[in-house]
Amino acid sequence: MQTDVIEARGLTRRFGEVLAVDAVDLRVGQGEVVAVLGPNGAGKTTTLEMLLGLRSPSAGTVRVFGADPSTAAVRSRVGAMLQDTDAPESLTVTEIVDLVAAYHPYRLPTGEVLERATLQGHRKRRVTQLSGGERQRLSFALAIVGDPDLLYLDEPTASLDVGARRLFWQQVADFAALGKTILFSTHNLEEADLAAERVVIINAGRIFSDGTPRELKGLLAGRTLELVTDADDAVLAALPGVRGVLELPADGATADRPGARRVRLQAADAEPPLRALFAAGHLVEGLIVTEATLEEAFVHLTSAERAR
Ligand SMILES: Nc1ncnc2c1ncn2[C@@H]1O[C@H](COP(=O)(O)OP(=O)(O)OP(=O)(O)O)[C@@H](O)[C@H]1O
């Protein structure tokens, strides 16, 4: 049986009234590349921090390589690229890489690290002389210098342009090809699809879905229906193939009609819910059907969930 690199059970974190992470169960096996996808404030960073042993859970347990993630033995096998990590500005790229390497029991040679992070040409540059994208690559270099078996990347491409993103994910793929386990967070569905073989969607602190990008697309792909109707939320949510219901602001079509409102439905297909609405005698007007992009479907699904 494959052993788990990460095993979280009932992982929960509160900040006062805010339930940032709500009973998350997550198992990640050796060699998996997993994307944690979710909107702002979904709980991605807090989850990663608990998996890293940087933040203690309010409830639940985390085991990484079968042990507490805050222990030295586990930390020596883990690399992390977190948001907003500052490197000492007076040091050169090579000096920082060597400095961080000194804390690790095993290390990759400096030349290999710089090559993997495409920083060979910037060895003697100081941090202040690096562009935003180059600084991000330096963070990646520092995350991998200890030759980690498990790598965490928290929104690693947030400040990169399209070309730099592609290059970055190629570097991650090369590192993953060494048999490493990688867990990264992102807002970007297309990026999760490109770089991960498994996508965990987290929303409002909970795992919303967990599967391959292909399964995720199957779950999200479909039609967006906008219409004016008198059916209430419970009726709409129970229509065949409907996955999400969102109320839209009132407009001229709804103003003078009691009970009528404009809604947006996310559905596997357009016909079955419409047929059911007509059959039940509900008002259906101003209908617009569009093919949902993955991005739209994701935003719609997670916002509908949040509104519940
Ligand atoms: N130190 C803190 N004190 C109070 N609330 C916090 C703290 N850290 C996070 N939160 C709250 O917990 C929730 C989850 O935040 P978290 O940063 O984990 O989300 P995220 O998915 O990483 O978001 P983003 O994509 O915006 O980085 C948010 O409501 C946030 O405001």
Report what the structure shows.
By secondary structure, this protein is α/β, with parallel strands linked by helices. The protein has helices spanning 44-51, 72-75, 93-101, 110-116, 132-144, 162-176, 189-195, 213-220, 233-237, 252-255, 271-279, 294-307; strands spanning 4-15, 18-29, 33-37, 59-64, 78-81, 150-154, 181-186, 198-203, 206-211, 222-229, 242-247, 261-267, 285-292. The strands form 3 sheets. A 6-stranded mixed sheet has the order 5-6-7-3-8-9, with helices on both faces. The structure holds adenosine-5'-triphosphate. It is found in: Cell membrane. Keywords: Antibiotic resistance, ATP-binding, Nucleotide-binding, Transport.
Radius of gyration computed on alpha carbons: 23 Å
Q: Any idea what the shape is?
A: elongated
Strands of the widest sheet, in order across it, are 5-6-7-3-8-9
Residues in helix, %? 25-40%
Strand fraction = 25-35%
Would you count the extended β strands for me? 13
Poorly predicted tracts of residues: none
The number of helical elements comes to 12
The structural class is: alpha/beta
Q: What can be said about the biggest beta sheet?
A: 6 strands, mixed
Order of helices and strands: EEEHEHEHHHEHEHEEHEHEHEHEH
- Bound heterogens, unique: adenosine-5'-triphosphate
Global mean pLDDT: 88
- N-end to C-end Cα span: 39 Å
